[in-house]
Design brief:
This protein is of the alpha/beta class. The protein has helices at residues 10-16, 30-43, 57-69, 72-87, 149-157, 180-187, 212-220, 235-253, and strands spanning 96-105, 115-117, 122-131, 137-144, 169-172, 192-195.
Length: 260
């Protein structure tokens, strides 16, 4: 993991530019726009404090919102996930997924989609992610922290249904047994929901087979200041930053000569 932000290398840009509309000439180079977004993700700065060596913050913010709204960010995230899996000798899409959530405090001035997670005593939002066994994020839904995992998990899985044809198993903890298990049985033919949790008498973190990868993914968020808590006014922006985090993580992993 990089200890500080570094500009995109030529090899990294080659791996990401195919998902961007670079065909026509623009006032600002899209490589500079992407660099600015990734800098904000790493540093956690306010939009208006974007340094002068990047395009104006309003232009960067425009593309950040536009790419999320149009679905380009989701397509880029999926494409990079497929590339990384192939690079590691895996099938392009996973057969086993892990679903988990992380409750985080909400930043100042946030009032929408906010609640209290009574179990963790956190007033804020919940990040609900689904990963593969490599820890790659395939979808994310952010909602108020007072909503239960079992009642909202189907919203995280639904977007994957249809194009994740290899899906055979979903790993989850006991919080998903109520509500989500019935939904999987009724809506995902041939998909098994496996519930596993640490023994109730055990304290602290206990790594469970395969499910530890989602905890590792949450742990990587700590290296990106924009994700240390939820600073976003909308959950859509929160979801976008997590997908950008996944894309940047994949670019870090790819060797400099990789242009697959």
């Amino acid at each position: 993991m990089q200890t500080q932000y570094e500009r995109l290398t030529d090899s990294q840009w080659e791996n990401i530019k195919e998902y961007l509309p670079i065909q026509r000439k623009r006032k600002y180079d899209l490589r500079e726009i992407v660099d600015a977004i990734l800098w904000l993700l790493r540093i956690g700065s306010q939009w208006r404090n974007l340094p002068d060596n990047f395009p104006p913050w309003k232009s960067v913010y425009y593309y950040f919102g536009k790419w999320k709204k149009e679905g380009l960010l989701e397509r880029m995230n999926e494409g990079l996930n497929r590339k990384e899996r192939k690079r590691q000798g895996r099938a392009s899409t996973p057969s086993m997924f892990c679903i988990d959530s992380q409750s985080v405090k909400a930043g100042p001035f946030i009032s929408k989609d906010k609640g209290i997670d009574g179990n963790k005593r956190i007033n804020g939002r919940k990040r609900h992610i689904v990963t593969d066994t490599l820890g790659l994020v395939w979808n994310v839904v952010v909602h108020a922290a007072n909503q239960t995992d079992g009642s909202t998990a189907n919203e995280v899985i639904k977007p994957l249904v249809g194009y994740m044809s290899r899906m055979k198993k979903i790993l989850a903890d006991a919080a998903y047994k109520k509500g989500f298990m019935d939904w999987v049985f009724e809506n995902l033919l041939g998909v098994d929901l496996e519930i596993s949790s640490k023994p109730p008498t055990t304290k602290g973190f206990v790594p469970l087979k395969w499910r530890w990868v989602s905890e590792q993914t949450f742990g990587r968020f700590n290296f990106f200041r924009r994700l240390d808590k939820d600073h976003e006014r909308t959950v859509q922006s929160s979801e976008a930053w997590i997908l950008w985090h996944n894309c940047q993580t994949i670019l870090f992993r790819m060797p400099e000569t990789s242009k697959i």
